[in-house]
Structures are given as structure tokens and as C-alpha cells.
Write the C-alpha cells for this entry.
Amino acid sequence: KQEVTQIPAALSVPEGENLVLNCSFTDSAIYNLQWFRQDPGKGLTSLLLIQSSQREQTSGRLNASLDKSSGRSTLYIAASQPGDSATYLCAVLRDQGAQKLVFGQGTRLTINP
Amino acid sequence: EAGVAQSPRYKIIEKRQSVAFWCNPISGHATLYWYQQILGQGPKLLIQFQNNGVVDDSQLPKDRFSAERLKGVDSTLKIQPAKLEDSAVYLCASSWTSGRLGDTQYFGPGTRLTVL
């Protein structure tokens, strides 16, 4: 059974800092991994999707890496801004069987002005 | 394009009552998902539809939860009777095809259910 873990559960940093969010998964047989952002009272927004054959993806100030063999992914946020405050979730899609996303519990990020 | 619509946004009921949630996916999306997100946890898939057929409902508590997607467009999720542990946000998502092709899932704003 696939399990996804995100550490830390919460993180608070001053504006302007670079930061890293961590995600680990127990079964390396994944099709892809996604990072989502969730704002209070709103749904999830997909930030980056990494296919199992890829090592990283970049979008603006965000960079996500994937090490499938070790079951780890990181989301790097450069030059953090107060608007980056949200909960960040990672999710993996299995490469066989039922095609469903398995989510971690999320990291609640607060950027202090 | 319009996003995934859900209603109601909030619902408060007493335990043992019934409740229904509605979802309208993005136009043209064949796949529809219902997730349950308990406070402090990530979303958990309850049921996945491909058009109007069920692809996966392995984590749906079928003794009290039911879902349908008539005509392969809108969907309704029902809980009857509700328990305290059903308090959660219920998220609906849709995508062009199944997750096999790695299609992005687009999420609605969710319905926050409180069971007293």
C-alpha cells in the first residue's frame, strides 16, 4: 500500500528566504508525482507535475525534484513571498492498477512579511 | 473556461441525518473524482467515474455513502445516515481522461460538512 509522508507539517519563515518542502513515498512504482497548493476555503491547484522518467520540473520560482529510487521529492521555493502562504500537498499516481492519486498530509507554509 | 462547480459550500447537520453534495465538472471532462479531506490530512479518493461508469470505489463506505453520475456530466454524492467522523471537506475534481495519461485533475472549491 502506497503511503505518502510530508515533513514538516507546518513551516514559518520570513519573507525573502529560500525554502524546501519534503515528500516521501513508500512504493517507487509511480507514474508521476504532483505538487499542489491549497488555500483556505478553496480547492487544490496543481503547481508542478513530474513524470516518473523525469528528475525535475521548474515553474517560475518553484522547482520540484524527484528521486524515484529513494522515494523522495522536494519542492524548492525561491525568494518566498507572503502570497506563497498556503498548504502544499504532494501526491503520487500509481503506474498500475487503480489510477488514483495518493496524497500526503500537506505542509502548511506561512511566510512572514 | 469555467472551473469545477460544487454546492453547497458549507453544510451543518446532526448525526444520523442525510446530506447530498453536487458537482458540475469542467465541460468535456470525461473523468470525475470525489475526495474526502479530513482536517489535517490529505484528500482521500472516494470514487472515480469515467463518463457515467464507476472506475474505482474501493474506499467508498458503501453502507452509508452513494454516488451517481447520470448522463456522464453532473454528479451527486450522498451520505445517509451521517456519522460524526464524516465531518470533512468533500472535493470534486475532473480531468479529460483517466490518470493513466497523467492528465491534470482540476479541483472544485469543496463542500465543508460538519456533523454535530
Notes: Chain B has a mean pLDDT of 92. DSSP finds no helices and eleven strands in chain B. The radius of gyration of chain B is 13 Å. The CA atoms of residues 85 and 115 of chain B lie 8 Å apart.
